[in-house]
Amino acid sequence: MIRRVVARLFLAFTLCFLLPMTAATIWWTTVDRPGSWRAADWASAGVLPAADTVSEATIHVMAARTGGLKGAASVHSWLVWKPADATTWTRAEVVGWGNPVRRDAYAPDARWYSNAPYFVGSITGRAAAALIPRIEATVDAYPFGFRGAYVIWPGPNSNTFVAHVLREVPAIGIALPPHAVGKDYIGDGLRAHLDAGGDLHLSAWGYAGLSFGPRRGMEINLLGQTFGIDILQPALKLPGIGRVGT
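RESULT FIELD:
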């Protein structure tokens, strides 16, 4: 009986985690990428219009594959916003050197280690205008924003920061992709957090956990990777690969 249970758990781990990560790693080895951060392209990818051509308030959650071998497993995410009629974008993110929280350290749509960014989700109009002050306040109050707080794995890292803002301002209604390693770190020890949007997060030091609710769907988090199902916007969430579906 015990042997059968162990065999089924191993099969589930292989199908849900090991195979997707293996596929992502094989694909990543075929991608042309810079040998170091000095050789990487950090310039604008041109995916955002100039801020002065967008009249309405706008919020974007953006992400791009990170550098080196980490790129097979994870993306780096950040927030971009502008109030109505503002002539510049504001970019907020966390980095692994110096003071973690940075504003406008790069172009709002800059490549990350030469990897082009994409839109995880966006909000525009009155809804965005109402949320921008809350986002700015949450960024300023980020609990892991002090020098030395950054931990690449399991967190708190760049994805921990964006996930924190999305949890604290759930009306944004956006969830990070499954391969945003660090998004499930909510603190050391055994933790449980029910955010105002109705998502419940359970975590064991950020190494393993569960998340379920209207934004997250149902997720199993293991060693920074996520396997899950999005019910409201039907999709599979696969480790190293991302969303497969809508």
